Amino acid sequence: MWLSLFILALAAAVAIHFWWRAKFNAQQGQRTAEMENFQRRQQQTSVDAKAQQQVLFNSMLEGLLLLDRHRKIYLANRAFKNLFGLKTELRGKTVLEALRFHELDDLVNQVEAKGQVLNYELKLPDLSERWLQVNAAAIFDSAGEREGTILVFHDLTRLKQLERTREEFVANVSHELRTPLSLIKGYVETLLDGARNNPEVAERFLKIIERNTQRLDLLIQDLLTISALESERIKVDLQPVNLRTLVEKVFSDLKLRAENKQTKLLVELPELIATADANRIDQVLANLVDNAIKYGRANGKVIVGGKKTDDGKIEVFVQDDGPGIPPEALDRVFERFYRVDKARSRDQGGTGLGLSIVKHIVQAHGGEVWVRSEPGKGATFFFTLPAEVAN
């Protein structure tokens, strides 16, 4: 009997052991599953946070570069890669390995030594003359240990270009103003010193003074015109304009100048009606025809022609038979004050603003302007205007 009770107790103990073991294993498995789910959620949260962080950084207009404590790239946003023309993965590389740019590596050294570097101007080592402004600072943890470096890059290229344009503009205007003013001042002083008592000399000097005051007046008018055009203060009054009639008027206005050089003025323009501001297009044609007469050969010819294009625009050209324009100057002739031959241009007169005014007037009409030329074969200037829309 005692043996039977012992066996039953032993069996019960074994059963309880296996039951508790199974329950423990189930609980352990559940806890393990919960832990794995928790870890997966944590990992997913971390991935989502990193993805959101990357999206945020990539939406920045400024280039952003984060370096870890070992000076390896931890993060580079899209703007940074675009600024430096990079497409490969940068993470884990040093600045020198990724960019081969010693000046930027030197900047990282400065940040480590000083803690921060602000408003540092960096010229990129390429042919396009691009400039960046860099603000950089070291990152420290709560214990004061350096964890890495952050660098923010802002593209200064446009500002640099505008600054250079402003400087060139001021220099050119100063030169254009100084020349006639110096002549006027010199001849006035000579007249005051006694030359006014010689009627023949006085008349000649006064004519020179008059000519240079007219040159100053023309320069100021052109400066005001181009300023108004660039700031869009001048609004074009669009009306149907007969371009052939307008060309004939310009030829009539410039007839004496053409006769002095024995230049023939030829119209090869059919009856084309454009939607344009007649006064402004008169200014365009006058500038182009005047230049063609001025720089064309003596006893030569100037031709104005045109056609209606397949896309519904009117294309007009002004052609001369002068020495032409060198290939390297073709892209610059519409810049303010740009002169292909500075000495010859100033001898011929003019402000150096005519073609720039032409460009802005044509663009104000929604058109385009360009030039074709070969040295020794003359130059042909083209511009487009919207054609009249039939009712």
Overview of the structural elements:
With 391 residues, the chain is of the alpha+beta class. It has helices spanning 2-58, 78-84, 95-99, 102-114, 157-192, 199-230, 243-253, 255-260, 278-295, 342-348, 354-364, and strands at residues 63-68, 73-76, 116-123, 131-140, 146-155, 239-242, 264-268, 273-276, 301-308, 313-319, 369-373, 379-386. The strands form three sheets. The chain has a five-stranded antiparallel β-sheet, with helices on both faces. Strand 3 (116-123) and strand 4 form a beta hairpin. 23% of the residues are buried.
Q: Strand percentage, roughly?
A: 15-25%
Low-confidence stretches: none
Q: State the strand order across the main sheet.
A: 2-1-5-4-3
How much helix, percentage-wise, in residues?
A: 40-55%
Overall 3D shape: elongated
The helix count comes to 11
End-to-end C-alpha gap:
122 Å
Question: How many E strands?
Answer: 12
Q: Main beta sheet: strand number and arrangement?
A: 5 strands, antiparallel
Overall radius of gyration: 39 Å
Structure classification = alpha+beta
Q: Indicate the mean pLDDT.
A: 81
User: Could you state the oligomeric state of the chains shown?
Assistant: single chain
Order of helices and strands: HEEHHHEEEHHEHHEEHEEHHEE
